[in-house]
Specification:
The protein is built from three helices and six strands; from the N terminus they run αββββαββα. By secondary structure, the protein is α+β, with helices and mostly antiparallel strands. The protein has one domain: Aspartate Aminotransferase, domain 1, CATH 3.90.1150. A hairpin with a 2-residue loop joins strand 1 and strand 2.
Length: 117
């Protein structure tokens, strides 16, 4: 099991009202794209949430939240949440709203152009 399927069902159900959600396998887990931007995801049995820069440090202070570091390198802008941090539907919904806020406010980065030789 690469990711918790029960958590995937909970997230899919909670985001069912949105028409712009796409599930995509990434990072050995499952990511939810909103407006074409990764918003939340699942790594094993933990929640991964994108956070707008202005809220990043505050999000890290919340119970059971930590820097995302599953490759040996911290991924800025991502918060990893341990299971007790999203046990209830209300807790999960708060984290999902954080990810949705990122998707709505973040600018889409344009691909870098290759220089002509």
């Amino acid at each position: 099991m690469a990711y918790c399927e029960d958590l995937a069902k909970r997230i899919s159900f909670a985001l069912n009202y949105r028409t712009d959600v796409v599930e995509k396998k990434m990072f050995g887990g499952l990511a939810y794209m909103i407006n074409g931007k990764m918003s939340v995801g699942i790594i094993k049995d933990e929640l991964m949430v994108r956070v707008i820069p202005a809220q990043y440090e505050a999000a890290l202070q919340l119970p059971f939240a930590k820097e995302m570091d599953f490759t040996g390198r911290v991924m800025k802008g991502f918060v990893q949440v341990e299971k007790p941090g999203f046990e209830t539907e209300e807790q999960l919904q708060e984290w999902l709203e954080t990810g949705i806020e990122f998707a709505q406010k973040a600018e889409i980065k344009k691909p870098k152009r290759k220089k002509a030789i």
